[in-house]
Amino acid sequence: MAVLFDLEILFGLAILTVLLVRRLALPSIIGFLAAGMIAGPHALALVKSSHQVEQMAEIGVVLLLFTIGIEFSLKELMRIRQMVFLGGGLQTALTIAAIAAIGAACGYSIEQAIFFGFLAALSSTAIIMKLLLDGGEMDTPHGKTTLGILIFQDLCVVPLMLLTPLLGGSGKGGADILLMMLKAAAVVVAAHYGARYLIPWILRQVVSARSRELFILTVIFIGFGTAWLTAEAGLSLALGAFIAGLAISESEYSQQVLGDIIPFRDAFMSLFFLSVGMLLDPAVLLKYPLLVAGTVVTIILVKVLVAVSAARAIGLPLRVAILSGLALAQIGEFSFVLSQTGLKYGLMSPDLYQLFLAASIATMALTPLCLRLANPLATFAIRRLPSWLTRGNNALAGRERRSRLSGHVLIAGYGLNGRNLAKVLKNLEIPHLIVDTNPFTISSERKRGEKIIFGDASQPEVLEHGRIAQAKMLVIAISDAAASRRIAAQARQMNPSIHIIARTRYLLEVEPLYRLGVNEVIPEEFETSVEILSRVLRTLLVPQDEIEQHISEVRRDGYGMLRSVSRRHSHAVGISGYLAGAEIATFKVGHGSLLAGESLSKGTIRSMSGATVLVIKRKSEVIPNPDPVWELKPDDIVLLLGSPEQLAAAGRLFTRPA
Questions:
Q1: Cα torsion for 379, 382, 385, 389, to the nearest 10°?
Q2: Do residues 646 and 615 lie in contact, with contact meaning Cβ atoms separated by under 8 Å?
Q3: What's the CA gap between 6 and 13, in Å, rounded?
Q4: Which end of the chain is more exposed for a tag (fewer CB within 10 A), N or C?
Q5: Contact 459/390 with Cβ under 8 angstroms?
Q6: DSSP per residue over 560-618, as a string?
Q7: How many other CB atoms are found less than 10 A from the CB of residue 553?
């Protein structure tokens, strides 16, 4: 009953504080931290069973890492393995060294200074991942860089926990530590392969029972079981949950698992932030305000500078490095566990512990502000600094060769969209060139023969290297909306006649891109709704021609609105800028089709579809506005003008048997 009452007090107070901070346009995290501080034992002491609340808060961290693992994939993790070990290793080592040097200079013993470095090296996986997920930035270059470094930090929790007693003058010897490390590595490998082969079989058996309750219980059992297994080996609970999530992400049930777990995750995550706030004694803020403020500024500056340096050292552009550095500028949740161990072994005094808590919670509360300032600061730095300092180091990607392409398609970003587009263009033997910011992706793709260059496509030097002036089309296939806008503006300035196609997540991001001169914007939000409509109608056995008609109407209405936006802001001259509701499309004359061997004078295309023939291409010969006596032959490519319905009707003529 006492725990239930405490939870009621906490959640009630959280509702009030979150409502207040949301009215002030501040993130909910600040409200949770403030509510925990007010209800904690050092303020109003409204909560009696704070230890039990902290235990439930750990469940929130486990569930967060579990869902992150589900949304990620093993293949993607292998793709960024260099980012994990090189980027994460540099960030962790340099942060420990920098903070240790500052601590020693302030008069602390070398053991204490190194321990302070341990505390500062870790960042908050819970806060950063939640903010990146909410902002839709997990797939961006800085999102992947941040995730890679965070994974390495979680791996480092084990050795840091083992080394802390040694710094305090006690603990096990080197042989025992090595044995513990080997044991931990063995458990991780066993958990990974066991989950990979055992979990799919278990889930298939559970699904066959057709019980949702059983399915949810099994998922929780797998996630918590793997977390407990890794914790028994001395690893963190969160790392075990992440491994379990990765294993489930490879199964066909991953989306159902995600939908069932997210409500639990959000509830327990709020408990985590509440419990962190409960640890702090507000009197410290009043007693040492300048010391707390100075510590906060020092932590943020050191962590940002170190993370930016680590990202630059592995070859990433300055923009990605700054965004990642500001995301990693806070103290992590595992640092609280580590600080309690340090308190136990005499590496921290009670006053120093409270000072650390105050500074850490302040850095957590400032994280949303850091992320909000990241884009303006990165843009400011790129504009003021010379290009050789901002474009990234290509030493890891290999030496660039000057491209001689002309009339090619330039693809900015080599994620899923860019990869699929490049594959199709390669099969069709259409010249193309890819620009990407990940040096490790560049190295691996070049070995496969892909034409890809390293760099930030928003930089004029990179676009010039990709021969933007000679390119026929630019496809912006990245997830970062702000970066997409910069690329579009720069490309339009360097080549006013280029055709630009950009992808975006939401309809709200469409108009700013059109305003910058993008010819076509593909909002994933709208395309997803069209695909859902198509699949629903197909499942309900609606005839295919009716499905195409309904989809045509939806596309006409939806893209009609988008085209009106495009015409208001269009910077390019083209047929789409003048003809409302009209589209152009190409079709190939099929062997044995109704149109094969038929002259245009018969008017079959016009009479049976309403579309107009503009251009005919036969091999390398292009005939604009062809004469009526022109006879169509198999494999001719015909460019037609018409409404979406007319083009759909015309398309059937090119395959319809004579």
A1: 150
A2: no
A3: 11
A4: N
A5: yes
A6: HHHHHHHHHH--S-SGGGT-TT-EEEEEEPPTTBTTTT-BGGG-HHHHHH--EEEEEEE
A7: 12
Q: Which helix (H) or strand (E) holds 502?
A: strand 499-504
Q: What is the CATH number of the domain that holds 614?
A: 3.30.70.1450
Inside any domain, residue 598: yes
Find the angle CA(113)-CA(117)-CA(120) to the nearest 5 degrees.
Answer: 135
Quote the CA–CA distance of 454 and 121 in Å, as a whole number. Answer: 30
Backbone CA torsion sign across 349, 62, 143, 148:
positive
> Which of 542, 573, 604 is the last residue before a domain boundary?
573
For 332, which DSSP code? -
Angstrom distance (rounded) from CA 45 to CA 160: 33
Closest CA to 501 of 491, 86, 493: 491
The Cα 541–Cα 518 span in angstroms is 38
Dihedral of alpha carbons 245, 248, 250, 253, sign: negative
> Among 116, 96, 40, which Cα is nearest to 349's?
116
Do 563 and 631 lie in one domain? The reply is no
Helix (H, G, I), strand (E, B) or coil at 657: strand
The enclosing H or E element of 523 equals: strand 520-523
The domain in which residue 306 lies consists of: 2-384
CATH code assigned at 527: 3.40.50.720
